[in-house]
Write a structure and sequence with these properties.
By secondary structure, this protein is α+β, with helices and mostly antiparallel strands. The protein has 4 helices and 9 strands, in the order βββαβββββααβα. The strands form 2 sheets. The protein has a 6-stranded antiparallel beta sheet. The chain has a 3-stranded antiparallel beta sheet with strand order 4-6-7. A hairpin with a 4-residue loop joins strand 2 and strand 3. The chain is globular and about 40 Å long. The two termini are 23 Å apart.
Protein backbone atom coordinates (compact mmCIF):
# COMPACT_ATOMS: atom_id res chain seq x y z
CA UNK A 1 0.00 0.00 0.00
CA UNK A 2 1.06 3.56 -0.74
CA UNK A 3 -1.15 5.50 1.61
CA UNK A 4 -4.68 4.65 0.53
CA UNK A 5 -3.53 3.33 -2.85
CA UNK A 6 -2.61 -0.27 -3.53
CA UNK A 7 0.57 -0.64 -5.60
CA UNK A 8 1.13 -3.72 -7.72
CA UNK A 9 4.63 -4.95 -8.45
CA UNK A 10 5.23 -7.73 -10.95
CA UNK A 11 7.36 -10.47 -9.44
CA UNK A 12 8.91 -11.50 -12.77
CA UNK A 13 11.47 -8.69 -12.59
CA UNK A 14 13.91 -6.97 -10.27
CA UNK A 15 13.90 -3.43 -8.95
CA UNK A 16 16.35 -0.63 -8.22
CA UNK A 17 16.38 1.74 -5.26
CA UNK A 18 15.79 4.60 -7.71
CA UNK A 19 12.35 3.05 -8.41
CA UNK A 20 13.06 1.49 -11.76
CA UNK A 21 12.07 -2.07 -12.67
CA UNK A 22 14.28 -4.40 -14.69
CA UNK A 23 12.85 -7.23 -16.76
CA UNK A 24 15.27 -9.90 -17.95
CA UNK A 25 14.98 -10.34 -21.73
CA UNK A 26 18.06 -12.50 -22.24
CA UNK A 27 21.04 -13.75 -20.26
CA UNK A 28 22.47 -10.25 -19.72
CA UNK A 29 19.83 -8.05 -21.37
CA UNK A 30 17.54 -6.05 -19.09
CA UNK A 31 14.65 -3.76 -20.01
CA UNK A 32 14.10 -0.85 -17.59
CA UNK A 33 11.08 1.27 -16.74
CA UNK A 34 9.61 3.22 -13.84
CA UNK A 35 7.86 1.38 -11.01
CA UNK A 36 4.27 2.03 -9.92
CA UNK A 37 5.71 3.84 -6.90
CA UNK A 38 7.63 6.31 -9.08
CA UNK A 39 4.69 6.86 -11.42
CA UNK A 40 2.35 7.41 -8.46
CA UNK A 41 4.65 10.06 -7.00
CA UNK A 42 5.15 11.77 -10.37
CA UNK A 43 1.50 11.72 -11.51
CA UNK A 44 0.75 12.40 -15.19
CA UNK A 45 4.12 12.28 -16.91
CA UNK A 46 4.05 14.63 -19.91
CA UNK A 47 7.72 14.99 -20.91
CA UNK A 48 10.61 12.54 -21.19
CA UNK A 49 14.12 13.24 -22.41
CA UNK A 50 16.65 10.41 -22.58
CA UNK A 51 20.21 11.37 -23.50
CA UNK A 52 21.35 7.80 -24.09
CA UNK A 53 21.56 5.91 -27.36
CA UNK A 54 22.41 2.38 -28.46
CA UNK A 55 26.05 1.32 -27.94
CA UNK A 56 26.59 3.96 -25.24
CA UNK A 57 28.35 2.62 -22.14
CA UNK A 58 26.74 3.65 -18.84
CA UNK A 59 28.08 3.67 -15.31
CA UNK A 60 25.80 2.98 -12.34
CA UNK A 61 24.08 6.19 -11.21
CA UNK A 62 25.03 8.03 -14.44
CA UNK A 63 22.47 10.63 -15.46
CA UNK A 64 20.52 9.37 -18.47
CA UNK A 65 17.89 12.07 -18.94
CA UNK A 66 14.99 13.85 -17.30
CA UNK A 67 11.28 13.48 -16.78
CA UNK A 68 8.56 16.03 -16.10
CA UNK A 69 5.09 15.55 -14.73
CA UNK A 70 2.22 17.35 -13.10
CA UNK A 71 3.97 16.99 -9.73
CA UNK A 72 7.71 17.08 -10.39
CA UNK A 73 10.68 17.50 -12.66
CA UNK A 74 13.46 15.03 -12.04
CA UNK A 75 16.69 13.70 -13.47
CA UNK A 76 16.86 10.01 -14.33
CA UNK A 77 19.87 7.83 -13.51
CA UNK A 78 20.97 4.41 -14.68
CA UNK A 79 20.45 1.95 -11.83
CA UNK A 80 23.39 -0.24 -12.95
CA UNK A 81 26.32 -0.21 -15.36
CA UNK A 82 26.10 -1.62 -18.85
CA UNK A 83 25.81 -0.92 -22.56
CA UNK A 84 22.63 0.64 -23.95
CA UNK A 85 21.03 -1.64 -26.55
CA UNK A 86 17.76 0.20 -27.24
CA UNK A 87 15.73 3.26 -26.27
CA UNK A 88 11.94 3.37 -26.44
CA UNK A 89 11.56 5.98 -29.20
CA UNK A 90 7.74 5.85 -29.03
CA UNK A 91 7.90 6.98 -25.42
CA UNK A 92 10.12 9.94 -26.33
CA UNK A 93 7.42 11.10 -28.77
CA UNK A 94 4.54 10.39 -26.38
CA UNK A 95 5.48 9.65 -22.75
CA UNK A 96 1.87 8.90 -21.76
CA UNK A 97 2.79 5.19 -22.05
CA UNK A 98 4.52 5.60 -18.68
CA UNK A 99 1.18 6.54 -17.13
CA UNK A 100 -0.91 3.97 -19.00
CA UNK A 101 1.28 0.86 -19.14
CA UNK A 102 4.26 1.33 -16.81
CA UNK A 103 5.23 -2.37 -16.82
CA UNK A 104 4.69 -2.88 -20.55
CA UNK A 105 4.81 -0.24 -23.28
CA UNK A 106 6.13 2.29 -20.74
CA UNK A 107 9.66 0.84 -20.75
CA UNK A 108 12.51 3.35 -21.08
CA UNK A 109 15.65 1.56 -22.30
CA UNK A 110 17.39 -1.80 -22.64
CA UNK A 111 20.84 -2.51 -21.26
CA UNK A 112 23.41 -5.28 -21.58
CA UNK A 113 24.12 -5.43 -17.87
CA UNK A 114 27.63 -5.40 -16.43
CA UNK A 115 26.38 -6.26 -12.94
CA UNK A 116 23.22 -7.32 -11.19
CA UNK A 117 23.01 -5.33 -7.99
CA UNK A 118 19.23 -5.04 -8.30
CA UNK A 119 16.65 -5.94 -5.66
CA UNK A 120 14.31 -8.92 -5.68
CA UNK A 121 10.61 -7.89 -5.38
CA UNK A 122 10.51 -8.62 -1.63
CA UNK A 123 13.65 -6.53 -1.06
CA UNK A 124 12.16 -3.67 -3.07
CA UNK A 125 8.97 -3.74 -0.98
CA UNK A 126 11.12 -3.52 2.17
CA UNK A 127 12.95 -0.56 0.63
CA UNK A 128 9.60 1.09 -0.16
CA UNK A 129 8.35 0.64 3.37
CA UNK A 130 11.36 2.56 4.65
CA UNK A 131 11.13 5.20 1.91
CA UNK A 132 7.35 5.76 2.16
CA UNK A 133 7.49 7.77 5.39
CA UNK A 134 10.21 10.04 3.96
CA UNK A 135 8.24 10.43 0.73
CA UNK A 136 5.12 11.45 2.63
CA UNK A 137 7.04 14.10 4.59
CA UNK A 138 8.57 15.35 1.32
CA UNK A 139 5.19 15.55 -0.40
CA UNK A 140 3.77 17.44 2.56
CA UNK A 141 6.79 19.79 2.79
CA UNK A 142 7.91 18.38 6.13
CA UNK A 143 11.33 17.04 5.16
CA UNK A 144 13.16 18.86 7.94
CA UNK A 145 10.68 17.91 10.63
CA UNK A 146 10.99 14.93 12.95
Amino acid sequence: MMGNFEAHFPTDRKYAKNHMWAQKLDTQVLRFGLSAYAVRLLQDVYFLDLVVEPSMQLQARQEIGSIESKKAESSLYSPIAGQVLAVNQELLDDPSGINLDKYGKGWLFELAASDDSLLAPAQYIEHLSAAWEVAQRTIKGQVNEG
